[in-house]
Design goal:
CATH superfamily: Aldolase class I
Number of helices: 12
Largest sheet: 8 strands, parallel, barrel
Bound molecules: phosphoenolpyruvate
CATH topology: TIM Barrel
Number of domains: 1
Strand order of the largest sheet: 1-2-3-4-5-6-7-8
Radius of gyration: 17 Å
Strand content: 15-25%
Length: 252
């Protein structure tokens, strides 16, 4: 049985004080939720204070990226162990914004993934096609390339701790959500890929989130699909009210 996971990717939003205010309010509202893993991913600067405010609650903190080296002359980078000490449990890796704007490739995703796993953090690895790739009918080729390239050399035991986020780039921040059927088709395909790369047991165990304009009014239909195990949410995770509704989608 895969436990659903709903994670808020705050991107470049919220100062430290805004983050603390947000999580302090949220934790009281979702304290009764036990059947969903809840994660918020603030900017680096707010990770530590958000984690302090959430200690003892059912909400975990994630980061939005990490470097693959533990230390060295890498100006501007943050190591997985630093994130762990700051209170992180999860790290998003390979978000399409990083792939598009900051030179992230399958190779760098793979290196980061291995470093994050070594530190004992849970990686959320993002894959997904661009609009022109979907229109050309090559969605599966793109996703296959990203899944195979990103997960290269991982052992089954390591892969058991990985979360995958299928995020069609054309759906991120655009208000154009993939239909539940479109998302389910790719999620099922990712499970096929995992089965080929590892085995059926692993494929059935790995959680695959959908991401791309998830809102309180569309999450339930997405979550009704058998291979969709949660959401990676940008815009709708920035307000306590809407994030609470997402986490409590079963009650809506
Ligand atoms: C995201 O940032 O990963 C995302 C899916 O954003 P949004 O929900 O705003 O589309």
């Amino acid at each position: 049985m895969r436990k659903p996971i709903i994670a808020g990717n705050w991107k470049l939003y919220k100062t430290i004080s805004e983050a603390v205010e947000f999580v302090s309010e949220l934790k009281g509202k979702v304290s009764g939720v036990t059947d969903i893993d809840i994660v918020v991913c603030p900017p680096f600067t707010a990770v530590s204070k958000a984690a302090d405010a959430l200690r003892g609650s059912n909400i975990k903190v994630g980061a939005q990226d990490a470097h693959w080296e533990e230390e060295g002359a890498f100006t501007g980078e943050i190591a997985p162990s630093m994130l762990k000490e700051a209170g992180c449990s999860y790290v998003i890796i390979g978000h399409s914004e990083r792939r598009a704007m900051f030179g992230e490739t399958n190779q760098t995703v793979n290196k980061k993934l291995k470093a994050v796993l070594k530190t004992g953090l849970i990686p959320i690895v993002c894959v997904g096609e661009k609009l022109e790739e979907r229109e050309k009918g090559i969605t599966k080729d793109i996703v296959k390339n990203q899944v195979q390239g990103s997960l290269q050399g991982l052992k089954k035991e390591e892969m058991m701790n990985v979360v995958i986020a299928y995020e069609p780039v054309w759906a991120i921040g655009t208000g154009k959500t993939a239909t539940p059927e479109q998302a389910q088709e790719v999620h099922a395909y990712i499970r096929e890929l995992l089965s080929d790369l590892f085995d059926a047991e692993l494929s059935a165990a790995v959680r695959i989130q959908y991401g791309g304009s998830i809102k309180p009014d569309n999450i339930k239909s997405l979550m009704s699909k058998k291979d969709i195990d949660g959401g990676l949410v940008g815009g709708a995770s920035l307000k306590v009210e809407s994030f609470e509704k997402l986490v409590k989608y079963q009650e809506e």
